[in-house]
Amino acid sequence: MNDSITARVDRIKAWRDAEGWSNDDLADAMGVHYITVNRVLVQGWPARWAFLDGIVRAWGIGALLELFEEHDIESEVAA
Question: pTM of the prediction?
Protein backbone atom coordinates (compact mmCIF):
# COMPACT_ATOMS: atom_id res chain seq x y z
CA MET A 1 0.00 0.00 0.00
CA ASN A 2 0.92 3.66 0.16
CA ASP A 3 3.63 4.42 2.74
CA SER A 4 2.71 8.11 2.58
CA ILE A 5 -0.47 7.28 4.53
CA THR A 6 1.63 5.88 7.36
CA ALA A 7 3.67 9.08 7.30
CA ARG A 8 0.48 11.16 7.43
CA VAL A 9 -0.89 9.20 10.38
CA ASP A 10 2.46 9.65 12.10
CA ARG A 11 2.17 13.40 11.50
CA ILE A 12 -1.29 13.41 13.05
CA LYS A 13 0.13 11.60 16.08
CA ALA A 14 2.99 14.10 16.32
CA TRP A 15 0.59 17.03 15.99
CA ARG A 16 -1.68 15.51 18.65
CA ASP A 17 1.28 15.10 21.00
CA ALA A 18 2.59 18.62 20.31
CA GLU A 19 -0.84 20.04 21.16
CA GLY A 20 -0.89 18.03 24.37
CA TRP A 21 -4.03 16.18 23.33
CA SER A 22 -4.92 12.71 24.52
CA ASN A 23 -6.50 10.12 22.26
CA ASP A 24 -9.79 10.89 24.01
CA ASP A 25 -9.43 14.61 23.16
CA LEU A 26 -8.84 13.67 19.54
CA ALA A 27 -11.79 11.30 19.60
CA ASP A 28 -14.03 14.05 21.03
CA ALA A 29 -12.92 16.45 18.31
CA MET A 30 -13.64 13.79 15.69
CA GLY A 31 -17.07 13.10 17.14
CA VAL A 32 -16.39 9.46 17.98
CA HIS A 33 -16.64 7.73 21.32
CA TYR A 34 -13.19 6.20 21.45
CA ILE A 35 -10.16 5.88 19.23
CA THR A 36 -6.62 4.76 19.90
CA VAL A 37 -4.19 5.95 17.29
CA ASN A 38 -1.88 2.99 17.82
CA ARG A 39 -4.80 0.60 17.36
CA VAL A 40 -5.64 2.35 14.10
CA LEU A 41 -2.10 1.68 12.91
CA VAL A 42 -2.29 -1.99 13.92
CA GLN A 43 -5.66 -2.55 12.25
CA GLY A 44 -4.24 -1.78 8.83
CA TRP A 45 -5.24 0.32 5.85
CA PRO A 46 -9.06 0.36 6.19
CA ALA A 47 -8.73 1.73 9.71
CA ARG A 48 -6.20 4.31 8.56
CA TRP A 49 -8.56 5.51 5.83
CA ALA A 50 -11.37 5.67 8.40
CA PHE A 51 -9.14 7.67 10.74
CA LEU A 52 -8.23 10.18 8.05
CA ASP A 53 -11.87 10.37 7.01
CA GLY A 54 -12.76 11.14 10.63
CA ILE A 55 -10.31 14.04 10.62
CA VAL A 56 -11.87 15.38 7.42
CA ARG A 57 -15.40 15.03 8.80
CA ALA A 58 -14.48 16.78 12.06
CA TRP A 59 -12.37 19.64 10.74
CA GLY A 60 -12.91 19.68 6.98
CA ILE A 61 -10.54 18.96 4.16
CA GLY A 62 -9.04 22.43 4.46
CA ALA A 63 -7.84 21.69 7.97
CA LEU A 64 -6.29 18.44 6.81
CA LEU A 65 -4.59 20.20 3.92
CA GLU A 66 -3.28 22.85 6.28
CA LEU A 67 -2.12 20.22 8.73
CA PHE A 68 -0.16 18.30 6.11
CA GLU A 69 0.67 21.21 3.79
CA GLU A 70 0.06 18.92 0.85
CA HIS A 71 -2.37 19.26 -2.04
CA ASP A 72 -3.07 15.65 -3.02
CA ILE A 73 -4.82 14.53 0.16
CA GLU A 74 -8.35 15.39 -0.93
CA SER A 75 -8.24 12.98 -3.85
CA GLU A 76 -6.56 10.26 -1.78
CA VAL A 77 -9.06 10.52 1.08
CA ALA A 78 -11.98 10.55 -1.35
CA ALA A 79 -10.64 7.48 -3.22
Answer: 0.37
